[in-house]
Amino acid sequence: MAFKTEEDKKAYWRDNLSLMLKLLIVWFVVSFGCGILFVDVLNEVRFFGFKLGFWFAQQGAIYVFVALIFVYVRQMNILDKRYGVDEE
């Protein structure tokens, strides 16, 4: 369960950082964008009786964050298999 070359190690870390950056961008857009910046625009839409901006700030962001955890786990398993460092 080790990397074959130093180049594989660097490529693995680069892919890992790329994935984390993409997920952090989604996290930022949902938490800061939908919960703060675009709240007035989103409040014009109703979701289960609540204003959408309020819903994102209170509950929707949490659902997205949990989904991001599952996406990260899945993508890291794929990345681990690609570089031969998976645990299975």
TrEMBL record:
Positions of the Sodium symporter small subunit domain: 9-86
Regions crossing the membrane: 21-42, 54-73
Keywords: Membrane, Transmembrane, Transmembrane helix
Superkingdom of the source species: Bacteria
Keyword NAD set for record: no
Protein known as: Sodium symporter small subunit domain-containing protein
Source species of the chain: Aliiglaciecola lipolytica E3
